[in-house]
Amino acid sequence: MDQMIYSIVSVKKKQRELNTLLVGMKGVSGADLYAVFFDDLTAVVSNIKKASLVANRSNAIEYARVIETLAQHFTLLPVRFGSVMESTDVIIKMLGRNYHEIQRNLTKVENKVEFGLKILCDSEKIKTELIAKAEADTNTEPAFAGQNSIYRKYLDKKLKEHRFEEMLISYADPIIKDITSHLAQLNPIHKFQKRPSKTNIIDDVFLLEKDKKEELIQAVEELQNQYAGLRLLLTGPWPPYNFVDITIK
Amino acid sequence: MHDNVIDRSKDITILEVLDRVLNKGVILTGDIVISVADIDLVYLGVKLMLSSVETMEQIKSGKSVNV
Questions:
Q1: Which residues form the domain of A142?
Q2: HSE value, Cβ hemisphere, 13 Å, CA-based, for A152
Q3: pLDDT tens, A195-228?
Q4: Of the candidates A74, A94, A110, which is a domain's last residue?
């Protein structure tokens, strides 16, 4: 039977602890979970029929719950939903072939958790100011003067939208700098993304030592007070989904 | 006090969970095997980066998905 892999866990000498933990847990669709060991690495898997593997909300949440519970006890690498291998033997060989790369990633995330920080710009005041500035900038450049008015209106509209987008992206730069500097004392590893969606101007995920959660919350509260016109959403702690840098063969 | 900062909204949390579970983590070469809701089984080559719900909706509605 095929086996779905949930995560790769660093067990070291805690194999018995992992087995005991797995006895009390269930995987996707209530499947039993078990451990496939190779040296000090373990793949946590469940039997699965390929045809029954459905990427729906409840399965994804059950899958995430398994990873989250394991992450509370062990250092691990989450595996993307839907990753299936044919047998235990194939999984053992995969762990052996990729041993050093897996260990490198596990070392990177050891004793750390991931947090997400979204900066949402749903303030009408800020938007209005930026739109007005975009319009003012556009009006100073008669780029399409003399052209047919329908085309000109269309191009002006597009130009304004483009300017607005550019402004929001530029608007994000000093905020990113500020976040980086404000959280620097916690020594996080950041991954920033600018303007990932319409209302979201910055998406930051970062890896942080487990015991720094309270300090982080305080630092984000201070940032929120500083940026009253923006909404800051902090989520976590998560297993290190965004900090796994490995494609396994 | 912390509730102002840590958003515990269920919807946001679920979206965050879906984004991570479907988009992030270790990539295994071979096939990622999923079927979405009640449609036919879809085999996705591992090079396809699922962009979570949006891609799922595209698959569901029969639209092509960029690989």
A1: 113-243
A2: 11
A3: 766 677 888 899 999 999 888 888 888 888 888 7
A4: A110
Assembly ipTM: 0.79
A104-128 tens-digit pLDDT: 999 999 999 999 888 887 666 677 7
Same domain, A45 and A146: no
Which of A79, A85, A232 shows the shortest C-beta gap to B26?
A79
What is the distance in angstroms between the Cα of A240 and the nearest Cα belonging to chain B?
Answer: 8
List, as ranges, residues 12-31 from B with C-beta within 8 Å of A: 12-14, 16-18, 20-31
Dihedral pair phi/psi, residue A210, rounded to 5° = -55, -35
Distance to chain B for A232, nearest Cα, Å: 7
In degrees, rounded to 5, the angle at the alpha carbon of residue A60 between the alpha carbons of residues A50 and A88 is 45
Domain count, chain A: 2
State the SS3 of A74-141. Answer: CEEEEECCCEEECCHHHHHHHHHHCHHHHHHHHHHHCCEEEEEEEEECCCHHHHHHHHHHHHHHHHCC
Which residues in chain A are closer than 8 Å to B34, comparing Cβ atoms? 53-55, 81-82
**Where are the domains positioned within chain B?**
2-60
On whether residue A248 sits in a domain, the answer given is: no
* Residues in A lying within 8 Å of B, measured between beta carbons: 2, 5, 7-8, 50-51, 53-57, 60-61, 63-64, 67, 77-85, 94, 105, 116, 217, 220-221, 224, 232-235, 238, 241-242, 244, 246-249
CB contact under 8 A, B21 and A234: no
**Entry pTM:** 0.76
